[in-house]
């Protein structure tokens, strides 16, 4: 019998040679590829611009830098609004310019690349003002570019004194947060000398009087009478100074310098107190950290609680830490807090306390929080018990919780799942939420499917009677009943 080669193998070989990849395209030859690029770029400004940049790069980093600088100037001068149809092209253009700077120029001319990248980031305000960046893709390009300063700056041969001045000028005009974190990124390039000069610039700004505006004095006087713009400017100045000095302190590992920028009122805020206490604890100053936390009423704040417990443990006060964890769990039913509490207990004693925790959860005032706890623990038996014991408290509008809860319970606890579905059905019908009628109809069919698994409805009415009751009570909801088989 004559053997035949399987046709799919031949087809696959043919297809592999037509796949768009570098090897197959290179096989076309230089001349053919050049002709194709000219053809493809016809009518496409983006492709032409990219090709010109590649040609410039072929002539050297200086030539490419010249073209990128020209393009950045064009983007800076442009004032027309960019609609959603053209936003993608703008993002691509920005990405291309950033890539030319960071991937092609930086290797050969890091000083030129640093200067260009700085100009690129400084474009952000003018770009933000003429494009809707609700999706954040424009901001992502600038944030990515900002992060690359950290890699390029140490190789750019920058004068620390001049760099400190440039950084401070940027931070003073940081309208859209485009230079947020720049001190940390440039800490290595600034060095001790640059950071110290930057600190002096910040302190001098704090002591300097407010800059005079260009408005006529009479107009400024009337404006001050009618607004709190002066207080707002003073507050903004104070925040800029505090953030800058704290960032300098952080990169220098100066915990006391960081803390010194906070007023006593700031340190009584749970979030700030937790941050400061964490820094002190990292330095081994646990008593000071505990004192900071002790001056606040932060119980219930997750960061504060975690830091407070960590301080107690560092000080060897295990019993106090355990008491705080238990009190915190009783207030919040936080799963991780309970796990941390039980982990420290001796064998068998943890089982007893776990049972006490679950008993407390069954009585917890907020039933939704209790249900979330049992689902996350997980303990489906207690979740079902909670639902059956407190069915009257179910909020059928919490479909984001009740739907997954019913899905989790339906196989082993069909009655509890049915009660959850009923709660969502009844809320939908009583409130006339027609947009949810399809879901409510599905839930009613879920109840019908679960009926065969329920041997005892206890104090709840069986499914046929429930459906009949619905038909009587909501007989005018024709659009709902039309969806029910």
Give a quick precis of the structure.
By secondary structure, this protein is an all-alpha fold. It has 29 helices and no strands.
Q: In words, what does this structure look like?
A:
The chain is built from 29 helices and no strands. It has helices at 7-18, 22-26, 30-41, 45-59, 61-77, 84-108, 110-122, 124-128, 137-152, 160-172, 182-185, 187-207, 217-226, 229-251, 255-259, 264-267, 270-282, 286-294, 302-314, 318-332, 335-344, 349-362, 367-376, 380-389, 399-409, 414-430, 437-451, 463-473, 478-481. Helix 5 (61-77) runs antiparallel to helix 6. The longest helix has 25 residues, at 84-108. It starts with 6 loop residues before the first helix and ends with a helix. The mean pLDDT is 88.
What's the β-strand tally?
Answer: 0
* Number of helices in the DSSP assignment: 29
Largest sheet: none
Tell me the radius of gyration: 33 Å
Query: What overall form do the CA principal axes indicate?
Result: extended
* Secondary-structure element series: HHHHHHHHHHHHHHHHHHHHHHHHHHHHH
* Arithmetic mean pLDDT: 88
Strand content: under 5%
Broad structural category:
mainly alpha
What is the CA-CA span between the terminal residues? 60 Å
**Helix coverage percent:** over 70%
Question: Residue ranges: pLDDT <50 for 5 or more in a row?
Answer: none
């Amino acid at each position: 019998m004559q053997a035949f080669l399987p046709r799919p193998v031949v087809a696959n070989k043919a297809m592999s040679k037509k796949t768009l990849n570098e090897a197959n395209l290179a096989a076309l030859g230089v001349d053919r590829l050049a002709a194709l690029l000219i053809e493809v770029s016809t009518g496409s400004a983006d492709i032409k611009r990219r090709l010109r940049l590649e040609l410039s790069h072929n002539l050297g980093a200086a030539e490419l830098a010249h073209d990128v600088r020209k393009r950045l100037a064009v983007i800076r001068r442009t004032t027309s609004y960019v609609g959603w149809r053209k936003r993608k092209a703008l993002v691509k253009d920005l990405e291309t310019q950033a890539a030319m700077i960071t991937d092609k120029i930086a290797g050969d001319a890091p000083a030129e690349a640093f200067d260009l990248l700085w100009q690129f980031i400084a474009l952000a305000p003018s770009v933000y003002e003429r494009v809707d960046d609700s999706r954040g893709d424009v901001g992502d390009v600038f944030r990515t570019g900002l992060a690359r300063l950290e890699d390029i700056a140490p190789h750019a041969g920058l004068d620390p004194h001049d760099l400190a001045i440039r950084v401070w000028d940027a931070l003073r005009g940081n309208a859209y947060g485009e230079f947020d974190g720049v001190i940390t990124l440039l800490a290595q390039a600034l060095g001790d000398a640059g950071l110290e000069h930057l600190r002096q610039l910040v302190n001098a700004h704090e002591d300097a009087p407010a800059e005079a505006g260009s408005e006529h004095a009479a107009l400024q006087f009337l404006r001050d009478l009618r607004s709190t713009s002066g207080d707002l400017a003073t507050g903004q100045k104070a925040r800029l100074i505090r953030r800058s000095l704290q960032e300098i302190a952080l990169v220098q590992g100066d915990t006391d310098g960081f803390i010194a920028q906070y007023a006593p009122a700031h340190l009584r805020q749970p979030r700030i107190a937790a941050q400061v206490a964490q820094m002190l604890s990292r330095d081994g100053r646990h008593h000071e950290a505990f004192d900071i936390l002790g001056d606040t009423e932060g119980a219930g704040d997750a960061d504060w609680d975690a830091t407070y417990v960590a301080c107690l443990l560092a000080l060897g006060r295990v019993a106090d830490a355990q008491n705080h964890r238990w009190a915190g769990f009783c207030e919040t039913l936080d799963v991780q807090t309970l796990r941390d509490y039980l982990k420290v207990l001796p064998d068998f004693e943890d089982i007893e306390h776990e049972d006490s925790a679950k008993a407390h959860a069954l009585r917890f005032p907020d039933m939704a929080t209790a249900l979330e706890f049992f689902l996350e623990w997980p303990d489906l038996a207690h979740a079902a018990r909670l639902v059956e014991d407190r069915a009257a408290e179910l909020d059928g509008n919490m479909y984001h919780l009740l739907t997954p809860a019913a899905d989790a319970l339906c196989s082993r606890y069909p009655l509890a799942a049915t009660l959850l579905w009923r709660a969502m059905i009844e809320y939908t019908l009583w409130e006339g939420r027609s947009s949810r009628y399809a879901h409510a109809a599905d839930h009613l069919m879920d109840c019908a499917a679960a009926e065969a698994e329920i041997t005892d409805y206890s104090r709840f009415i069986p499914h046929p009677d429930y459906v009949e009751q619905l038909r009587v009570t909501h007989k005018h909801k024709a659009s709902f009943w039309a969806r029910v088989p």
